[in-house]
Amino acid sequence: MFAVYAREPNYEEPLKSLATGERPEPDVPDGWVKVAVRAASLNMHDIWTLRGVGIKGEQFPMILGCDGAGVLEDGTEVVLHSIIGDADRGGDETLDPRRTLLTELHQGTFADHVVVPARNVVPKPAGLSFAEAATMGTAWLTAYRMLFVKSGLRPGQTMLVQGASGGVSTALVQLGRAAGLRVWVTGRTAAKRALAEQLGAHQSFEPGARLPERVDGVFETVGKATWGHSIKALKPGGVVVVSGSTSGPDAEAELQRVFFLQLRILGSTMGTRAELMDLLQFVDLAGIQPRIGAQMALRDAETGFRSMLEGDTEGKIVFVT
Ligand SMILES: NC(=O)c1ccc[n+]([C@@H]2O[C@H](COP(=O)([O-])OP(=O)(O)OC[C@H]3O[C@@H](n4cnc5c(N)ncnc54)[C@H](OP(=O)(O)O)[C@@H]3O)[C@@H](O)[C@H]2O)c1
């Protein structure tokens, strides 16, 4: 079958490891299902995989793609939940120490077919296209958990999203606006800030800008480049929820502010199957149209990878088969 995959790890020049072509059709173990992929979206995780981060050397070649939407062999339209762990463990799948995300151990979704445990598919709402549904499983699920499960923020409070045009950040803006929060965003260019406002941000600012007032919560995926601003932007008792560190992990901790203002720093990763179901229901009920910044054929995936690597995003990048 046709697939887009990582040949080997290449930290310095990740695109040199990107390959397209034939890969073996997957076997379907008992209790697993085969999904004909209709759409899948690109995440920064795919670039980490090309770099060899979060994956063992012996797992290459690895088909990329952590999320997607498609059709089961019986015709059911589904969205993938890509955390694969111990089926008998129960509870929060994101806390399973043995969990893996698709592409860390099992082959990913940038292919004609993907196989996953049967519990890793949920029904696709009819109101979402396959391309829209393909944005839900990673970036949107991560944003949903950060905002609604971790932050403790209420409608009417103010949230700051660091980064305007990325997958997680556009999802946070759209979710926050729909849930009745005051949404502020930082973005690196005027065009990215304009996009955030178009998606529902009440105000947007240059990175590091002095804000009109301190905020109740900050949503961090950028890391080193914005961490100090995130901590300084918080009201006493405020919360920063962090799920990524695109610009690097080693930020100044700002410990004095953290203890003196009794700030809370919460880590967040992906979301549970139940949270994915709730996210899909919320997007459907609230009539949210997830922002797709670029859509292209899976065969042209390299263009999308290049855009993400260069920071040239306008929302999710989606590949269709
Ligand atoms: N823990 C999890 O489960 C989880 C899940 C999903 C993603 N993540 C992580 O979250 C991060 C974002 O992922 P994504 O898929 O949303 O990526 P993406 O679509 O490429 O978005 C990157 C974001 O980073 C922002 N950014 C601001 N300053 C930056 C700088 N100096 N260097 C690079 N980027 C900067 C961009 O803001 P502008 O709009 O201003 O350019 C943009 O919003 C990644 O590190 C990813 O690994 C973690």
First-last Cα distance: 12 Å
Number of helical regions: 9
The whole-angstrom Rg is 19 Å
What would CATH call the homologous superfamily of the largest domain?
Answer: Medium-chain alcohol dehydrogenases, catalytic domain
How large is the share of residues in beta strands?
25-35%
Q: What is the number of domains?
A: 2
What global shape is seen?
globular
CATH class value of the largest domain = Alpha Beta
CATH topology title of the largest domain: Quinone Oxidoreductase, Chain A, domain 1
Measured as a percent range, the helix fraction is 25-40%
- Main beta sheet, described? 7 strands, mixed
List unreliable stretches of 5+ residues: none
Describe the structure.
- With 321 residues, this protein is of the alpha/beta class.
- It has nine helices and 18 strands.
- Strands 3, 5, 6, 9, 10, 17 and 18 form a seven-stranded mixed beta sheet that branches.
- It has helices at 44-51, 130-133, 136-150, 167-178, 190-198, 227-232, 255-260, 273-286, 301-309; strands at residues 2-6, 18-22, 32-42, 62-63, 69-72, 77-80, 83-84, 100-101, 113-117, 121-123, 158-162, 182-186, 203-205, 215-220, 234-242, 264-267, 292-297, 316-320.
- It has two domains: 2-135 and 290-320, Medium-chain alcohol dehydrogenases, catalytic domain (Quinone Oxidoreductase, Chain A, domain 1); 139-267, Rossmann fold (3-Layer(aba) Sandwich), CATH 3.40.50.720.
- Helix content is 26%, strand content 27%.
